[in-house]
Amino acid sequence: MSTPPPLTPAAESPARAYDVLVIGSGIAGLSFALKVARQGRSVAILTKKNKADSNTNWAQGGIAVVTAQTDDFAKHVSDTLVAGDGLCDRKVVKQIVADGPQRVQELIDLGLKFSRDDDGTYDLGREGGHSERRILHVKDMTGKAIENALIKAIGREPRVALFEHFFAIDVVTTGKLAKTRARSRAHSATAAARADSTDRVAGVYALDVRDGRVVTFHAPVVMLSSGGAGQVYLYTTNPDIATGDGIAMAYRAGVEVRNMEFIQFHPTALYSLSGKRFLISEAVRGEGAILRNVEGEAFMARYHPQADLAPRDIVARAIDAEMKRTGSPHVWLDITHRNAAFLRSRFPLIYKACASEGIDIAVDKIPVVPAAHYTCGGVATTLAAETTLPGLYACGEVACTGLHGANRLASNSLLEAVVMAHRGAASVDAYLQRIQKTDAPAPVIPEWRDLGGGDQDERVVIAHNWDELRRTMWDYVSIQRTTKRLERARTRIATLSRETQEYYWNFSVDPRLLELRNLIQVAELIVACALQRKESRGLHSIAEYPKKLRRAEDTRIRRAG
Ligand code: SIN
To answer: Which atom in ligand 1 lies closest to the alpha carbon of residue 268?
Structure first.
């Protein structure tokens, strides 16, 4: 393949100039980086912790894809549409489902070994909402296996530079640069507005976490693949890194964000007094586990014909209702009818995690509760992973393509990530070729100004606001909503936002402050979208509007000016 020359911008620090910046190192970011590097582009991956710290690494279930003789695309499409409760984009669903087998084959080509039965065929898992067994998995550690395969492949790719412990703060755009210049020269508002009309990506400011300095990365393309925002809730199955950074950055860059009210609560997280919520994969119910209330009743048949394998929103709400009705802090998940050898081999991670809490899942019922799990909305993108800002792309959980609608079908997220990484790589290539032809000079980005210092004693504000935000979201913006609770949350979050912004401008930035700023932004978006939706649909259930509207519409939100 011929290699185009790199589009190195005229920057003060050419060493930090790339064709493409990728924010995040999960399945979406790594798959995308690999593909654009193979197109001959120079790529920097920025990850705020270690390269393997990603949501992907925690994914247990697997990747939903049509492989079995008994299955077909139409069934997978239909299951996705049913789970999405009328809000999926049918065209997007069809395309992503159809692209799946080819993209999954590429993972296999990288060396990924999905679990097989004794006869050598794939051991296909089943999860809620799926009418067929179609989940390819590596025991209950699918995400980790995919992450390892991709990290190995990236390590062999000389065009990719991986920056661990670099926290992307904000996307720099030509519009923002022009506005700043116009303001500093006291230009008219019309000049600033004119500058805005050609807005495109110029790079990113990022905190080098280890030395505390903010550095500038220059690139005409930024791919956001930083995952979801589970940490906005007190109880979540997500890792600590899931603080909605990409969604907040995109919103601050003036990009459209969509359907943020649809937060998926996983029905079965291990109930523990520590407050940590370890995921008990839906695949356990796929292998026959039954949900029981504290009275011992297998209650799910009262709520849905698919009982324990009903779509996730229904199961989570049913558990919430049973806990409220009985006053119990959890329900039980019962897989004691399967033997220990099977459970240890099929679910080694879950078996071990439960054992460490003194639970032998072959003998004991598992105490489970719902916990925030997946952000179905996010940065609005096309099927080419483009956002509304030229040069800014998004894929994976950070994005909202239209695949998930009002409720994601289990194990569709890894599928979406690999498919959209591939499609994004193709459209980025075309974009870079286009701008290469224009010969426009690359924008010069001023160095970050640290107004810094500040009173270190006041850092307690950050810890306090983290706790208050997550508690507020859990208590007022959770599985079952009311307008009054949402309004109460909005007021509280506005106060937290004011205090945190003040802090942001007066103190040197650090990761906890940056994460808090992003979480607050995401919380505001969730509440704003939830208040916009005057109906109950999918994951959004609100007392005042119990019915679905006839016409399903996305909620869209974009920062003014
Ligand atoms: C699970 O294993 O239950 C989670 C899989 C997913 O969220 O898609």
So the answer is: 3
